[in-house]
Write a structure and sequence with these properties.
71% helix
Length: 154
């Protein structure tokens, strides 16, 4: 096998596999976080939103909880990937911009983790909103879209 093919494989064959791995990991983490908020109730999040001066904090806490849980499930399945990923990205931007931005000064240390997690999820969500679910997604099965040359599609 040539070195070039090892270092630069055909993205038509590997791009959707990469998207599948990203979707599964991101979706699982988001769904787990959302599920824990569903079980415990989003009162703690609502309290934090109220302290920051957000209007209708209970409603927003439920929206955030459902964005994480349902968005995570959609990413896991590759179902409505683009809109689900866009909602996840928006939710995570609001999280880090409104609640965790001061922690950005500590990126790379334990004190930076509260910023790093939602920041990374916002970027992954944005990336999936651009690429879609790929070949190995329910989007591809249900909507029959062919992936583009980068393995995106769906």
């Amino acid at each position: 096998m040539k070195l070039r093919s090892l270092l630069y494989p055909d993205s038509n064959r590997t791009g959707s596999l990469g998207l599948l791995l990203v979707r599964l990991a991101t979706g699982a983490l988001l769904a787990a976080h959302g599920f824990s908020k569903l079980v415990d109730g989003p009162a703690g999040l609502a309290g934090g939103l109220a302290m920051k001066g957000f209007p209708a904090p209970t409603l927003l806490a439920w929206c955030s909880t459902l964005a994480e849980f349902l968005g995570g499930i959609c990413l896991l399945l590759g179902l409505l990937t683009r809109p689900a990923a866009a909602v996840v990205a928006f939710n995570m931007v609001v999280a880090w911009a409104s609640m965790h931005l001061p922690d950005a000064a500590h990126v790379g240390s334990v004190k930076g983790v509260p910023f790093e997690y939602p920041f990374l999820l916002s970027i992954v969500g944005l990336g999936l909103a651009f690429t879609g679910g790929g070949r190995y997604s329910l989007d591809a099965v249900l909507f029959g879209r062919k992936p583009d040359a980068g393995g995106g599609g769906g």
